[in-house]
Amino acid sequence: MLTLDTPLNEVGSVRIDKKMRDGMGKMGLHSVGDLLQHYPRRYEDRRHFDTFPEGPTEHPVCLHIEVVDCSSRFGKGRGRRWFEAIVEPKGGANVLGNRIVLRWFNLAYIQKIITVGHEMVLFGQPKWSGRRLVIDHPDFEIVDGDTSASEAHMGRIVPIYPLVSGVSQKPLRTLAYRVLSDLPDDLPPEWLPPGACPGGLSKARAIRGIHYPDSMEDLEPARRYLALEEFARLQLVLQKRRSQHRESGGAVHAGHGNLWQELQDQLPFEPTGAQCRTIEEIRTDLSAREPMVRLLQGDVGAGKTLVAAAAVSLVVEAGFDAALMAPTQILAEQHFQTFQSWFEPLGIEVKLKTGNRAAGGDLPLFSGNAGKMAKGSLTIGTHALIHDKEGFANGLGLAVIDEQHKFGVAQRQSLIERGDTPDVLVMTATPIPRTLALAFYGDLDVSILDELPPGRGRIITGIRLTSQTEQATGFLRDQLREGRQAYVVYPLIEESEKLKANAATVEFEAWKKRLPEAKLVLLHGKMTPEEKESVMGEFRSGQAQVLVSTTVIEVGVDVPNANVMLIYNAERFGLAQIHQLRGRIGRGRHKSFCVLMIDPDAAEARERLRVLEETRDGFRIADEDLRQRGPGEVLGTQQSGLPDLKFGDFLGDTKLVEQAKEIAERILESDREGEETHRGSPA
Asked: How far apart are CA 301 and CA 299, in angstroms?
């Protein structure tokens, strides 16, 4: 009897040669369980093939055909050769005489595989080439006379698997079919307790249904079952991480709040209600012995920095050190300037630690006025904080991680481990849809700043074509004459032959010619830290009126006088990223303008980007981004330290994610009760 742990080379009913075994090894397929979790990428309904087409079709078609002619062809130019196979419908008279030409370019081995008389199943999209109907590089499978294996490949809905070199579709499908036939019906669910299974499915039925569904309608319940199981496993990892952190012991890191009150007294504005609420949540966490692990979500400009400052003031007043880690030097240096201006009058020492590790050196350590220092200090830096040999003299009481999604788990953990179970505050200006927050941040408490400070200027967003650059230049010139500043953003640093998009370095020269009366500066990721700071210094001070940049300005640039942003090739960006970029303007009292410049050939992008014209609500934009691009693009799992999800498209299903969270909590509670019973039993 097979189990999920049975090695594939012990599945006796199928012979696996060395080439296929090596190929499956590259795919990570070693056991029965590995194979059964290698899910199909699509399906072909070979019960009913598509009608043989007479012309191009809007979608790919699946056809049962016979090869009636083959030939190798040669064209002009070196390496220009291709193989053609002419095919017609299999079975029945070809009354209309319809034929399709299949073409494979520069793939000489194809002519050794296909020959006249072959019966094939093919999948591809027909198009006209001159007067001939052709399909280029179709997926195909030769149907042989092996009746013993035909039940796996014909007359049913057939799975089509992802492949690598050395592994062909039919042998892999045959292996999966035989394994599924020998799979026990009472296969125990790994993560789902009885009664939690969607549609009353069993584990074995769900696995069979995902590989060989009886109907296309049967796919959905099978996928939901496996998605719920996957999410429950993910939640269990998160809940265990949360439980272990809480049980690791900690210390009270909160002072009385006198420094925070002094800071409020010197501010020229009042904190918003959302900021006050969040600060109280953090103060409660810092006052407890269990270590805080809190995610602070706030839309662009919602005031996360002030909340972090309140947390730091409470910690240093209690005699501990704090650290704030930012993803870029620009952001770290801006935080240093902000915190130094706030904390210097309070006697709190503020240090800056950044470095170009690739060049092997660190920038100097800076500190503010230490004349009447509080007991603790604040160190701000990039990932160089992790490598700082000086350590924290008073013990690290609080680790603040800004734009946390820019860091890998290992980097975040390295900073946390520099203290003795410090409190942790992670911040993001990228609104996270509720389902993603549930799925990936189940180990964190969440605070949301859902209120913008008063006095922010209105932002008007519009979509224009890159061919309208002349009009955009005129508008930009008018704003500069009124004393404003502007950003012009491009997706690339340098021109690329592979990508049809504008480059900042090339367009910088073009903009200097368009705006000869203005001072322009260029910023991109390949510049040295000193060059970046020099450029930003000119722009912040107003010496430069226009900053031509890549997305390096996505976070951390705060110039209230800048009220115009042109984003070129906006069709290449995600909605949430554009929302982040747009957050660089509208930070002063002036009306601001964000113009999304799209390529004329990308007119369909206008509909996708329209939500940015309609709203500044980051959470609505994030939800739309999730709907359009899927969770893999919106929130890569690599940064979470969690396994890639095979059923990530179900992350939009809030009920399914919540059910997985409840299942994980019940499993953990049951485990805890079992441990307590074991401890209480006599030896």
From this structure: 6
Q: How far is CA 13 from CA 9, 16, 161, 163, 185, in A?
A: 10, 10, 20, 22, 19
Answer whether 219's CB lies under 8 Å from 225's CB.
Answer: no
CATH topology agreement for domains 258-449 and 459-622: yes
Higher per-residue pLDDT: 465 or 79: 465
CA atoms in the 13 A half-sphere facing the CB of 585:
29
**Phi, psi dihedrals of residue 133, rounded to the nearest 5°:** -90, 120
> 349-353 and 366-367: which strand pairing?
antiparallel
Confidence (pLDDT) at 194: 64
Distance CA(235)–CA(245), nearest Å, equals 15
Q: Which residues contact 591 (CB under 8 A, 6 or more apart)?
A: 457, 458, 459, 460, 563
Write out the two tokens for 658.
Answer: 């919540």
Q: Are strands 132-136 and 100-105 parallel, antiparallel or unpaired?
A: parallel
pLDDT reported for residue 673: 72
8 A C-beta contact, residue 425 and residue 311: yes
227: tokens are: 């998605």
Q: How many CA atoms lie within 13 A of 109 on its CB side?
A: 0
Look up residue 222 and give its two tokens.
């099978």
One DSSP character per residue, 375-431 reads SSEEEEESTHHHH-SS--TT-EEEEEEETGGGS-HHHHHHHHTTSSS-EEEEEESS-
Nearest to 418 by CA among 443, 448, 394, 445: 394
The alpha carbon of 290 is separated from its chain's Cα centroid by a whole number of angstroms, namely: 31
Check if the beta carbon of residue 552 is closer than 8 Å to that of residue 525. Answer: yes
Q: How far apart are CA 64 and CA 46, in angstroms?
A: 8
Give domain limits for the chain.
48-154, 258-449, 459-622
How far apart are alpha carbons 523 and 548 in whole angstroms?
6
pLDDT of residue 637: 44
CATH T-level assignment (fold) for domain 258-449: Rossmann fold (3.40.50)
Taking Cα atoms as reference points, which of 608, 613, 563 lies closest to residue 588?
563
CA dist 134 and 100 (Å) reads: 6
Q: CATH second-level architecture of 459-622?
A: 3-Layer(aba) Sandwich (3.40)
Distance CA(665)–CA(681), nearest Å, equals: 24
Residue 317 has pLDDT above 90, yes or no: yes
- Residue 114 has which token pair? 């296909």
Q: What is the pLDDT of residue 372?
A: 47
Give me the amino acid identity at 378: L
Beta carbons of 480 and 545 less than 8 angstroms apart: yes
Question: How many CB atoms are located within 10 Å of the residue 476 CB?
Answer: 24
The pLDDT tens digits for 584-634 are 898 888 899 999 999 988 877 888 899 999 988 888 888 888 777 766 555
Tell me the sheet residues that pair with 446: 295
Q: Superfamily assignment of 48-154 in CATH? A: Nucleic acid-binding proteins (2.40.50.140)
